[in-house]
Specification:
206 residues; alpha/beta; TIM Barrel; 8-stranded parallel β-sheet; 10 helices; 8 strands; Aldolase; lyase; carbohydrate metabolism; Aldolase_TIM
């Protein structure tokens, strides 16, 4: 299954960004157990590459395991070496270009029509509308008018209450960090994470 198909099927990308590597690893595994198979681990977290390697070893080759906040070509190469088979960027740049050169599935950060055109020309897998909260669902709806066939994934400010509005505006999936992860990646309550995961899965299934 390619990334665009997986996004349409699952409709949710979990974004893990923590300062406790062990807790981040447990968070990734808990998300997988709770039926959220698309997970991004941000490189701004602590010891992210180790988290990615451990999670890949546990989840196997087929799992969607992403590296997020990929900025440079070096970031992209290190992420691939650690086992990431999905690269997520906050915008356009060398990290995105290197990921595309390596043939990695990419979720590229865009906000404007010019950025959408540039990202699509690179051959990215999907478009991360970031920060989505800047214009909300109306901005997504306006962007989709000239680009109706492109897969958009709003990220930044999406929660259980707003997810439905983004889907109604044409999102194929949403990316969610803190509203889903809470403090789990910093050593917080995994049972609370499980409850939030169930809430988001329900919201994204509507």
């Amino acid at each position: 299954m390619d990334l665009s198909t997986a996004l349409r099927a699952e409709r949710l990308v979990a974004i893990v960004r923590g300062q406790d590597a062990e807790a981040s690893f447990r968070t990734v595994m808990t998300l997988a157990e709770e039926g959220i198979p698309l997970v991004e681990v941000s490189l701004v977290g602590r010891d992210t590459l180790t988290v990615l390697r451990r999670a890949r070893a546990e989840l196997g080759d087929a799992a969607w395991l992403g590296a997020g906040t990929v900025l440079t070509a070096s970031d992209a190469r290190r992420a691939a070496e650690a086992g990431a088979n999905l690269v997520v960027t906050p915008g356009l740049g060398e990290g995105l270009a290197e990921s595309v050169r390596q043939g990695l599935p990419t979720l590229a950060g865009v906000l404007t029509p010019s950025e959408v055109i540039a990202a699509d020309a690179l051959g990215v897998s999907a478009l991360k509308l970031f920060p989505a909260s800047l214009g909300g669902p109306d901005h997504l709806r306006a962007l989709r008018a000239p680009f109706p066939e492109l897969p958009f994934v709003p990220v930044g400010g999406v929660d259980v209450a707003t997810a439905g509005a983004y889907f109604a505006a044409g999102a194929v999936a949403v990316g969610v960090g803190a509203p889903l992860i809470g403090d789990a990646a910093d050593g917080g309550d995994l049972d609370a994470l499980r409850r939030r995961a169930a809430e988001f899965r329900a919201a994204c299934a509507l």
